[in-house]
Amino acid sequence: MKRAMTFAAAVALVATAKPFAQTQTPAPAQTTGMILEQVLVKVNGEIFTKTELESRQIQALREQNRQVNNPADLRNDETLKAALIEITPAVLVDAIDELLIIQRGRELGLTPTQAQLTDAADRIKKQNNITTDQEFRAALVQSGMTYEEFEKNLEKQYVVARVQQQEIMPRVQLTDEESKEYYRTHTKEFEKPATITIRDIFISVPTTTQGGQPVMNVAADDEIAKKIADVRARALKGEDFAKLVAEVSESPSKANGGLIGPINVSELAPQVRELIDKLKPGEMSEPIRTPNGYQLIKLETRLDAAPEPFEAVRDQIAEKVGSTRMEGEQKKYIEKLRAQAIIEWKNDELKKLYEQKMAAKSPELR
User: Fold this and answer.
1) Position 185 in a domain
2) How many domains are contained in the chain?
3) Does an H or E element contain 150, and which?
4) CA pair distance 355, 348, nearest whole angstrom
5) How many alpha carbons fall within 13 Å on the CB side of residue 91?
6) What's the pTM?
7) Around 240, how many Cα atoms within 13 Å sit in the side-chain half-sphere?
8) What is the per-residue DSSP string for 29-59?
9) Is residue 73 domain-resident?
């Protein structure tokens, strides 16, 4: 089962090599053509067919955990028809954007060699403990894909990644000074919370059962209260707290000498935090009555909130700021490719869906 899930994820990744994330918005219903290889749109002379659209629609629906097996389901299942109204505009935008990116990649000579495609397929086989080509092809068929389709999509994914790496990534990389400036102006983002470590001793108070309910024995309670007070007195006279833990404690922390933490101060219950705030490292609380017994707490260490050093968060800053820049640069890049492209629609209704989606996106691109 684990292998199948991993393989399905790998195939889904290859099958959905989208250049950029798209936001889905509702739109009017799609057209329903009956010609198997109907050309829907040409992008710089390269065609996108009805068969390709249906394949992408099926994949998009499966990503929503909808049960769809073949194009006939898209026409005959009323629930799926309704779902198509929502997904088709984004599918069209994705398809055209991908064509534009791949065309640009070909212009730049960024297509993979057969050896590179084979190596990528071999890595997927190895990750899933598949040893033979025959077994791999059979697994692809079970996932709804032929090997040829898998390799074609793998090639698309490779080209998209190379275009992003060569054309966009250089524009989003931060200089050292930019990283330091971000750190100086966003120090709070990198602040480590205040933490404490404590040791505790817990001794339970025995109960008896009356009428099916636990009942506290007053004499037993007094006895345990005196015992915990004596333990505290011994600790105040200098006896090692960890040794006292080993001798009398019933706390789960006993195996670790009573040590608990580090604990984020902000995560403490208000009453416990109030108690801890009164202690200095090395000091003990008074005996604390809990629902099940008595507890002593000794504060071991206290670390105030403080920002992590720049060097420790340099990569985090690069990832955070870089991802934001990447999103903006990708939008600019694909918009430039669209502006230069010749897009010829052969289906007026799909053209309308596409244009509505682009109109909804246009504020993001200004």
Assistant:
1) no
2) 2
3) helix 147-163
4) 10
5) 25
6) 0.60
7) 6
8) PPP----TT-EEEEETTEEEEHHHHHHHHHH
9) yes
The answer to whether residues 22 and 31 touch, using CB atoms and an 8 Å cutoff, is no
Shared domain check, 115 and 224: no
39 & 167 share domain: yes
Question: What CATH code is carried by the domain that includes residue 274?
Answer: 3.10.50.40
* Nearest alpha carbon to residue 296 among 222, 202, 170: 202
**Order of all β-strands in the sheet with 195-204:** 259-264, 195-204, 293-303, 288-290
Question: Do residues 147 and 248 share a domain?
Answer: no
162-217 tens-digit pLDDT: 999 999 988 888 889 999 999 999 998 898 899 999 999 999 998 777 776 777 77
- Considering just the CA atoms, what is the radius of gyration of the chain in Å? 32
Q: Same domain for 271 and 348? A: no
Phi, psi of 53 (to 5 degrees): -60, -45
Please name the residue that has the structure tokens 């524009």: 171
State residue 33 phi and psi, 5-degree precision: -95, 155
Computed over every residue of the chain, the mean pLDDT equals 85
Return the amino acid letter for 107. E
Domain span at 222: 194-304
Are 114 and 31 within one domain?
A: yes
CA distance 156 to 246: 64
